[in-house]
Amino acid sequence: MTSYDEDRIQKQIVAELRARLPKAIIHHSPNEGNRGGTKGIIDGQRRKAMGMHKGFPDLEVICNGKVTFIEVKTPKGKLAPSQKLFMEEVQAQGFDYLLMRSADEVRPALDILRGRAA
Question: What predicted TM-score, i.e. pTM, was given to this entire model?
C-alpha cells in the first residue's frame, strides 16, 4: 500500500467523523512536505521553526471540550518511532490517542471522541 492508500483511508475517516460528530472540530495538520535534497532540508527546518512537532498525528478532534489525537495507517502500517513517542507523551498528559486503519473504527470510538468513558 502507498501513501495514497493512507490518504484515501484518512478522507473516509474524516467523512465519517464529520457525519457522526457534526459539531466537532476535525483538523488535519499537514506533516508531509518536500522530503528530498536541499529543498527538503530547508522545508524541514522552516516547518520545525514554525512549530511542527515530529511524530504529530494526522488528525485532531475537538469535541465537548476534549481533544483526541488520531493517527491513520493502512491495515499493515506501523507507527514510526517518533509517532510512538508522541503517543506516549500525550497519553501521559491525559489525552486520548487513537490509531485508526479504516472508517469502520470511528463508530466504536465515538464515546472517547465525545469525551465520555468508553
Answer: 0.85
